[in-house]
């Protein structure tokens, strides 16, 4: 008698925030109405506040009424320091405010070496593994690229040059262009870039990345009473 095949575990449902990013990457944004949409918290104890044009999306364990009581809106108040501190709690960690960017993979033969098992202690890799899952590392003499499942499960990449302050003219753009070969042709990939890092922001824009909005990731620590 043939033993029955064990039932496989069902795939977890994607976080609803992923649909917002996917639609935005296709040019379909939430309504520009000043409103705020509240979603469940992210996996791993993380939360976030996302600002699209005229509409905010907040993923948190707080009840919607508690979020709305602090008067966020879709015109910038959802990223105001006072609101973020209330969202995170008095001892919670609040990340930087980043621009949210997207582009499409180019596919083909990968143009960067796989360094996943050779760079486990690099600061860029450690940071990626604190916030993302399934982190892969690629690179060459110009720098490193991390490719991972990021915020809400979106495909996300970041780069770091080995020589950011000299001898690297054009290396950022070249490294980014090669990084897009690691993503299937036409697949959306995302990046979070600090607006103050103008050199990096210019490189992403020059390589075809499009701004979608801005975001802050939080690791809350709120009173439990």
TrEMBL record:
<protein>
    <recommendedName>
        <fullName>N-acetyltransferase</fullName>
    </recommendedName>
</protein>
<dbReference type="InterPro" id="IPR016181">
    <property type="entry name" value="Acyl_CoA_acyltransferase"/>
</dbReference>
